[in-house]
Amino acid sequence: MGKVIAVANQKGGVAKTTTAINLSASLAAADTKCVLIDCDPQSNASSGLGVAKDPTRSSTYEVLLGEASASEAILATELEGLSILPSRRDLIAVNLELVEAPRREFRLRDALELVRQNYDFVVLDCPPALDLLTLNALVAADSVLIPMQAEYFALEGISQLLETIERIRENFNPGLEVEGVVLTMYDDRTTLAQQVTNNLKEFFGEKLFETTIPRNVTLAEAPSYGKPVLLYDARSRGAESYIRLAKELLDRHSRRAEEPVPGQHDPAENSTEAIDGSHGSEIDSSEHNSGSEQTNSEKNIAAS
Question: How far apart are CA 303 and CA 238, in angstroms?
Answer without folding.
Answer: 90
